[in-house]
Amino acid sequence: MDFGQTPAQSDAVAHARAQALAFDAALRPAEQAFWQAAGANGWLGYCLPTTAGGAGFDALTTVLAVEALGRAGVSRSALFAMGAHLFGCAMVMANHASAVDQQHWLPRLARGNAVGALALTEPEGGSDLADLDCTITEDGEALILNGVKTLVSNAPLADLFIVSARQDGARSALNNAALCVPRDTPGVSVAPATGSLGLRDAPMGRVTFDAVRLPATAYLAGKGRALPVILSAMQWERSCILAGFLGAADRDLVAVTGHLAARRDSKGSVLGHQAVLHSLAEVRASLESARWTLYRSAWALDQGEDPIFHPAASKLVVSRAIVSAARTLQEVMAGAGWLDTLGIASGLADVMGTLSASGSTFVQLNAIGARLARK
């Protein structure tokens, strides 16, 4: 495999960087104007088909472009919200929705005229397909959805939810279902979540489905086919959603290095202290190692390789690397870090959640371990 950028990939990276530098930083994902601006830039359709208004990028090109957005200054909240929208919802619709729903939703999702959300986590059982309280019952040709999902990214603004639910009469959790549920369907209600310590500008919420009546075409990939749908969503999320965070970590490293180089003590530049320099060198090496794991996972997604191991390894390695980098940068900034000089303290709060988003560290380790057990 060759990760040297093609001319088209270099153009995509340069274009993303230029757009990010010109983007209005005052826009927040909790505002509709943000989504329309992001859609106008093409950020919400990087890997969607061109026939649906997307750019038609493969996963590796998408990762390169999203990484460039983070490196050039797009906030982590914005990166996370856009990733949940594109990888957790839009790509699921592109891969598994009916032709009618694709025609209706994909252009709107690509333009930012509609916001998407992946609703898997429940208050009691998490996102385990074997322990779902959300249920689907069939009433003639209609489906009735009941239950609650929590910690749903983009929920307060979402127009479309991808929902996992227990199929009435299913003999196994492997036969549960996934549905696309429009926000304006009677019985759908959303309560915004509050109190988050990080990613405060990335809206989250609790979604309740109270006797929500849906057509049979709401099934994604067909009745009792939740597993391939959720697997597809996790492939894209775990392989791609932290690319921008890795770029943002590069941005922070450059900023902190410059700050410490200019800071003086009785011996000269603080950057001359070996302990400081070694700490920054560790960050640089760790981020570079994570980058190649990220690229490898995106390439594997494009090649149709192992859909379990590579996404789990990428999510595990990249999340740990960016959290470690943020902690180290906070430490070397000392008191200036806690004053949030350069945004390092708030950056640390933002990245901590990546250890649990899209499956916790232990979920990723279980996935990797299961692959080892099969050898």
From TrEMBL:
- Source domain of life is Bacteria
Q: Which Pfam families match?
A: Acyl-CoA_dh_1, Acyl-CoA_dh_M, Acyl-CoA_dh_N
InterPro entries assigned? Acyl-CoA_dehydrogenase, Acyl-CoA_Oxase/DH_mid-dom, Acyl-CoA_Oxase/DH_mid-dom_sf, AcylCo_DH-like_C, AcylCo_DH/oxidase_C, AcylCoA_DH/ox_N, AcylCoA_DH/ox_N_sf, AcylCoA_DH/oxidase_NM_dom_sf
Identify the keywords attached in UniProt to this record, alphabetized.
FAD, Flavoprotein, Oxidoreductase
Cofactors named for this entry? FAD
The residue ranges of the Acyl-CoA dehydrogenase/oxidase N-terminal domain are 31-112
Chain ranges of the Acyl-CoA oxidase/dehydrogenase middle domain: 117-212
* Domain (Acyl-CoA dehydrogenase/oxidase C-terminal): residue spans on this chain: 228-372
Q: Is Phosphoprotein included in the keywords of this UniProt record?
A: no
Q: Which SUPFAM superfamilies does the annotation name?
A: Acyl-CoA dehydrogenase C-terminal domain-like, Acyl-CoA dehydrogenase NM domain-like
- What is the similarity comment for this entry? Belongs to the acyl-CoA dehydrogenase family.
Protein name stated in the entry: Acyl-CoA/acyl-ACP dehydrogenase
The species this protein belongs to is Pararhodobacter zhoushanensis
